[in-house]
Amino acid sequence: MVHIHITGASGSGTSTLGAAVAEALGIRHLDTDRFFWMPTNPPFTTPREVSARLALLQQEALPDVGWVLSGSALKWAAPLEPLYDLIVFLHLDPALRMARIRRREEQRYGERIRPGGDMAEVSRAFLEWAESYDTAGPERRSRATHEDWLQRQSAPVLRLDSAQPVEALLALVLDHPAVRAR
After folding, report:
1. Nearest 10 degrees: CA dihedral of 68, 74, 77, 83?
2. Of 77, 92, 75, which Cα lies nearest the Cα of 30?
3. Is 43 helix (H, G, I), strand (E, B) or coil?
4. Cα–Cα separations (whole angstroms), residue 22 to 2, 25, 60
5. Residue 39 is inside which H or E element, if any?
6. Where do runs of H (alpha helix) occur along the chain?
7. pLDDT (tens digit, 9 = 90+) per residue, 27-41?
8. CA 98, 99, 105, 110 torsion: positive or negative?
9. Is 75 left (phi over 0), alpha (psi -120 to 50) or beta?
10. For residue range 102-111, what is the model confidence (pLDDT) as tens digits?
11. Cβ proximity of 10 and 74 under 8 Å
């Protein structure tokens, strides 16, 4: 069974492509947000303790079953890295990526993220964090951190511009030798 990790900046389409690849291959789709964050309202405000999120992920990302892990698992899911058969790194023009994120935030939360809404501050902080991905240093999740991490991986890395339609990205992943060989 194949084990694929699809990673990149927030808003680059890792979850969308991860779901499409998992469906096409008939395997599980595991999104890092489900393991990283505690279920809260508003969402995405309380991270799980590292050992707890890793334990939850390891219960589902078993070595003998196929899966696609989408999102970023930098600095906390190192025990899974030897299992990766392919790492897909999505990159996207920062302006387009931020437009996607703003549209997604509006669709998900509507009035809650507008001034005076219960999620206005959380959303503002998230957008500020997401916008700094391409310029921030290695102290946090950033392009620099991803590039450093990618250099240290033993699995092949497929770099894709996620401005392409998801169908085109899916075809490129499915056609990769690491996937075809499984």
Report:
1. 50
2. 77
3. coil
4. 10, 5, 14
5. none
6. 14-25, 32-36, 50-60, 94-109, 120-131, 143-151, 166-174, 177-180
7. 999 999 999 999 998
8. positive
9. left
10. 999 999 999 9
11. no
